[in-house]
Design brief:
By secondary structure, this protein is an alpha/beta fold. It contains nine helices and nine strands. The protein has helices at about 10, 35-45, 60-65, 80-95, 130-135, 195-215, 240-250, 255-270, 275-300, and strands at about 1-5, 70-75, 100-105, 115-120, 125-130, 145-155, 155-160, 170-175, 180-185. The chain has a six-stranded mixed sheet with strand order 1-8-9-6-2-3, with helices on both faces. Helix 8 (about 255-270) runs antiparallel to helix 9 (about 275-300). The protein binds zinc ion (2 copies).
Length: about 300
């Protein structure tokens, strides 16, 4: 089953005619959501490893326990700056999913079937069909230990599910339990400056993890600002809302506090200050919550 992923360029351009909304700018933060988010997070932190979340997919969790790596394929050529963005995104994927990211088979689009490439309906540049990449290309030699296969390209992507319209492009797409793809095409020119590089990297990390989470079984989220909220629009946040974070942690069975610290450290190394501060807040809440629990246990005993 393919996750219908509206990470499409049309939404980014502000056309809200689609049935799912893109992100607003992240005006409401995790912290800004106040008591509701804090309550969710305290509940989450109290039992993140022990219990199954209300919504989750047992099949993908079993798959994740048997398999041990993400495989990342590169499709087509990249500029030097784009290649560096892909390398850094792979590092982030490893931290975010708590899995090693290994190089998958790389592909040259000139070897693809003719029907896998179409002309953009308006701009006439060539586009790769996501269905072909996911269902044909990434099925080839799929490693036995792959939790998910991901592919990244600098080509424009188009989807059978969103074929028309003047925009006619998607940032990415994913198939539940198998694979996801994303494109750097509309994520900005990473070669212009350090700021432009980091902006492109942040967008790449957001789209790549959004598609990867679809592969693990997470659907779009209609709650507080979240990387799974409808689409990985370019202005969307890197972080997950508490329910989505809980699903990921249950699926990956991560130890929450060190996991959050690893995410915070990676974001800090790339000077994503706002995102790093958000994780600092989560870490603070969780540490104080765990401290209270251990205090109450010792007072009972
Ligand atoms: Zn999606
Ligand atoms: Zn969410």
């Amino acid at each position: 089953m393919k996750k219908s992923c509206q990470t499409n360029v049309r939404q980014h351009q502000g056309d809200s005619g689609g049935r799912k909304r893109s992100f607003n700018l992240c005006a409401l933060t995790f912290v800004g959501h106040g008591a509701h988010a804090r309550k969710l997070f305290r509940e989450f932190g109290a039992d993140a490893r022990a219990t199954e979340p209300a919504v989750g997919d047992a099949a993908t969790a079993r798959l994740a326990r048997r398999c041990h790596a993400i495989y990342l394929s590169r499709v087509g050529k990249f500029s030097t700056a784009q290649a560096a963005v892909v390398t850094a995104t792979a590092e982030y994927l490893a931290v975010f999913f708590d899995l090693p990211v290994r190089s998958g088979t790389d592909f040259n689009p000139t070897s693809f079937q003719p029907w896998a490439i179409r002309q953009h309906p308006l701009r006439r540049h060539p586009q790769l069909l996501t269905d072909y990449l996911i269902d044909e290309v990434l099925w080839l030699d799929r490693p036995d230990d792959a939790v998910m296969c991901l592919a990244v390209t600098a080509w424009d992507l188009c989807s059978d599910e969103h074929p028309g319209g003047q925009w006619g492009s998607v940032f990415g797409e994913a198939r539940f339990g198998h694979a996801g793809v994303w494109s750097l095409r509309y994520l900005g020119d990473a070669s212009v400056s350090d700021t432009a590089f980091r902006r492109c990297l942040k967008r790449s990390c957001a789209v790549a993890t959004h598609e990867g989470l679809h592969v693990l079984g997470l659907d779009h989220c209609e709650g507080v600002p979240c990387n799974m909220r409808g689409s990985a629009c370019l202005s969307g946040p890197l972080h997950l809302c508490p329910p989505c974070l809980r699903k990921l942690c249950w699926n990956r069975q991560v130890d929450l506090l060190p996991y959050l610290q690893r995410l915070r450290d990676w974001l800090g190394r790339w000077a994503f200050a706002e995102a790093a501060e958000r994780y600092d807040t989560m870490i603070h809440w969780l540490a104080s919550c765990l401290g209270r629990r251990s205090q109450s246990r010792s007072s009972v005993s």
